[in-house]
Description:
The chain is of the alpha/beta class and about 280 residues long. Strands 1-2-3-4-5-6-7-8 form an eight-stranded parallel beta barrel, surrounded by seven helices. It is globular. It has helices spanning about 1-5, 15-20, 45-55, 75-80, 105-110, 120-125, 130-145, 155-160, 165-175, 205-220, 225, 240-245, 260-284, and strands at about 30-35, 65, 85-90, 115-120, 145-150, 185-190, 230-235, 250-255. Helices cover about 45% and strands about 15% of the residues. The protein contains 13 helices and eight strands. Helix 9 packs parallel to helix 10 (about 205-220) and helix 12 (about 240-245) packs parallel to helix 13 (about 260-284). The structure holds 1,3-dihydroxyacetonephosphate (13P). 1,3-dihydroxyacetonephosphate binds next to strand 8.
Amino acid sequence: METFVAAFTPVSSQHNASLQSEQSEASVRPLIAGNWKMNGLAPQLRQIEAIAASVKAKPPLADILICVPSTLIARAAQCAGGRIGIGGENCHSEMAGAFTGDISAEMLKDAGACAVIVGHSERRQHHGETDAMVAAKANAAWRAGLLAVICIGETKSQRMDGKALSVCGDQIAGSVPDGMTLSASAVAYEPLWAIGSGHTPTSEQIAEVHAHIRRCLVVRLGAAGREVRILYGGSVKPSNACEILAVPEVGGALIGGASLKATDFEAIVNAVSKRAESSLAALA
Ligand code: 13P
């Protein structure tokens, strides 16, 4: 697990020079993260084994994280063998106590997780999670030594009303605690209307929101806000990954449905290498 946690640092190795030159704003390895949501029984762990095997065979130019249901974390971490990170999908803000059915960040860590998703729109929608609750969960993740993937995003009607930027700005203000750092956090922009729908925003729309999120982070956090990875999530698949990952300020992806199948997930991971190769070719 230590190997993986160490991977969440700014890129300095030679093989990522192309990504560094292309991503001047970040110089950081992209993060390709899966979110299995409420999917996965024991046989699904074979997908983790397959992804770990392909990472061993061809080390990716990205940090790889798969967030799984709590029931699978310990076994998934074993299958991953430290080659890919395993994360939780939610945590309670308290360390322990009388909260029947809840799981603390410390428990996720104890089970073998190195990260946790907080504030996913499905938790905000179905469990009434507010920005303040999400910020408390992010703080809990940091307290436990986990990377917090903090999710934000607008609904379809908010976008139609021209409020996408203001909604995301407000969610950053409310959901991101002070003290955010590159090694402890990522922000995931997931427009609700793109999740599981097969529809994605245009590259221009993604670029506009990511640039706004970056501005908000820099105003709020200074230099640290320049480095934190901003992931895009919502109907990312092998066929659109290259285009999405090439959008300025997109520092990776948070993938739902396509993360359930190793071959699809691997194809998205490979899109990072393809992007690096084509930028190298452009420089030659
Ligand atoms: P899909 O990739 O299935 O649209 O889900 C996105 C998501 O919600 C990831 O957190």
